[in-house]
Amino acid sequence: MGELLGALNDPITGVGRYGAFSLDAAGKLAFKAYDPAATTMSIVTDATTQTPSGVSMSQLFGLGATGATRADAYSVRSDIQQDPGKLALAQLNLSAAAGTPALSKSDGRGGLALGDVGKRNVAFAAAGGSSGGAKTLSAYAADFAGEIGGKAAAAKTRSETAAALSKEADSRRASAQGVNMDEELVNMTTFQQAYNASARLIQASKDMYDVLIGILR
Asked: Does a structural domain hold residue 101?
């Protein structure tokens, strides 16, 4: 990692003239520009490859506004999947004296540490609707799942509301465009009666006019 930082911060072949990369105790690689107002960083191409994951350095550290994808290429070996007993659970004793074993077959401290991973606080970055912060992996996963569930429920409610509005709009349109036979029959009967009444009125007026003419003669 020291060699990597040295290559990145080299003023000739790296970006040392514009800023500096640094690696904190949590393994987070960050770039700080000497003049933030005039210098921005973006990853155009990255031909580096990390072994054994096969991901590039920018993907490994999430540089260039890309989420860290170092876990995407990792998987459990097939022989360990078939026989979990082959999983190494011991911890290397770096202080072991020369000639003494640095690993013990009955040592399960690695397995205990692996089991406690979900209980340790980790500094998570803000992502999506989550503000991040220091929390356990289990708590972060619960918050993440809860946020997704809330958004899914809200999206379902909006979908159902939109479907109901669409159905009501279609019903009103069909009501405005369609023909109601009962209503048309009532209107036709009303118009027919009005026509008959008008015809009788005209006939009465004609009879009165004929009588008036007869009187004048």
From this structure: no
